[in-house]
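Colleagues,

For the teaching module next term, I've prepared a clean inverse folding example: a structure given as tokens, and then the sequence designed for it. I'd like students to try predicting residues themselves before seeing the answer, so please don't circulate the second half yet.
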């Protein structure tokens, strides 16, 4: 059945899952969700130009136009794995609690300087997004970079079974999605499923030698390409500054890498190269350093790595440094968990050129039984320092014991915010995705 579907797929314009943006001559997959049933839109998809529809409810079958399967999502995943095996394209898997998307985009920016790359769009990193990414691989694609997200045990292992990565990197492991993982130990185990897969299949791990948690997951596995600030690594990377992040890198690699990639090895000397990024914060240093390691591993030139780093501009409310009147806004409102919130506060403290520092912080979601404890910990950290202003938004922050203004809803704070006046301040805006705090300055 998959073979038959694959023949239709390679003669089509790709895959569509939403009738609002059907690509002509694509195959429509009738996915289901909590509030929708894609089967009911199969006829509409065909009318809008889809050449075929994959369904899992007999009532919507149309002769010669639909393929009836047991489960549409499973079929999509099987098709993606089949396609990935057919083309034999190299696949990089990336996971972690923080920095997945930024790291993925940096690696893409670097490798794209000399290689044909496809990568996860945005953060489509779940059991639907991963197969959709794999299905964008073309015969000319050198490498696919696949971001893998999870909020429950076993999910990374499952995504690995779909993508079958040849290489993998864990960005960091922190207190994210504690509600689903049950504990910090659950986070470590689940993120480590990527390394478990790579070790079982004798694949290559790219590792940050300075991260003690991810290093511990390696055990005695030796197919590792490492980077870090210390000695004994394949690629040495130093942080020169964090506002913005400026790095210096040199190559100390003695091992060979995958054959068939550009043989240009300019820069493989002891001479260090400096690259200045558009990112801020010490927490972004390792994201950038990882992109250097991947560039070195795949034999890119020094100039290509430098250009890839310097040309990447953050978007989507991720560590964006914006001017807002006389103020500078550090907009980091895409997501938040205790680890990333702490890192953002530490970064703000390090920005010594700004005497007036303001924090607008929103709730951190998916912490379960740890919610009260973790929000109070953030408040306690804030009270150790002097700030020009602190504003806490959300039900969890509202319940903390805090010497700062607290607002239960975004709308409540928004009314107050309209009448606040900031001058020559550095303003951190950070919260979980559901808080959507970027709305505060969206029309400013």
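(Answer key — instructors only)
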């Amino acid at each position: 059945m998959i073979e038959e579907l694959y023949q239709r797929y390679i003669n089509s314009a790709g895959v569509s899952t939403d009738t609002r943006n059907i690509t002509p001559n694509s195959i429509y997959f009738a996915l289901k969700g909590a509030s929708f049933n894609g089967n009911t839109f199969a006829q509409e998809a065909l009318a809008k130009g889809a050449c075929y529809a994959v369904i899992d409810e007999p009532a919507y079958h149309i002769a010669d136009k639909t393929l009836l399967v047991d489960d549409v999502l499973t079929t999509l995943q099987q098709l993606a794995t089949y396609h990935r095996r057919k083309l034999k394209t190299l696949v990089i898997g990336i996971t972690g609690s923080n920095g997945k998307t930024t790291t993925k985009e940096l690696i893409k920016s670097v490798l794209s300087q000399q290689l044909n790359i496809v990568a996860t769009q945005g953060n489509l990193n779940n059991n639907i997004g991963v197969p959709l990414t794999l299905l964008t691989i073309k015969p000319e694609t050198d490498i696919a970079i696949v971001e893998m997200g999870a909020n429950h045990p076993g999910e990374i292992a499952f995504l690995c079974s779909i993508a079958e990565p040849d290489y993998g990197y864990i960005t960091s492991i922190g207190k994210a999605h504690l509600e689903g993982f049950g504990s910090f130990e659950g986070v470590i185990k689940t993120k480590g499923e990527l390394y478990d897969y790579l070790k079982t299949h004798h694949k290559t791990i790219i590792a940050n030698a300075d991260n003690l948690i991810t290093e511990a997951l390696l055990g005695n596995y030796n197919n590792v390409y490492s980077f870090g600030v210390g000695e004994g690594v394949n690629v040495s990377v130093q942080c020169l500054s964090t506002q913005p992040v400026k790095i210096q890198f040199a190559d100390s690699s003695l091992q060979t890498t995958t054959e068939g990639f550009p043989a240009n090895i300019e820069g493989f000397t002891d001479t260090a190269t400096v690259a200045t990024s558009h990112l801020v914060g010490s927490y972004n240093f390792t994201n950038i350093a990882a992109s250097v390691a991947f560039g070195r591993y795949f034999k890119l030139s020094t100039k290509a790595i430098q250009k890839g780093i310097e040309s990447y501009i953050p978007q989507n409310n991720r560590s964006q440094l914006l001017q807002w009147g006389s103020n500078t806004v550090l907009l980091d409102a895409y997501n938040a968990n205790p680890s990333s919130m702490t890192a953002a506060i530490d970064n703000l403290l390090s920005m010594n050129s700004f005497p007036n520092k303001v924090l607008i912080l929103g709730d951190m979601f998916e912490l379960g039984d740890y919610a009260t404890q973790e929000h109070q910990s953030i408040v306690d950290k804030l009270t150790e320092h002097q700030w020009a202003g602190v504003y806490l938004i959300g039900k969890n922050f509202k319940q903390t014991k805090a010497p700062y203004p607290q607002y239960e809803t975004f709308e409540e704070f928004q009314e107050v915010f309209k009448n606040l006046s900031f001058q020559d301040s550095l303003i951190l805006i950070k919260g979980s995705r559901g808080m959507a705090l970027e709305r505060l300055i969206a029309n400013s």
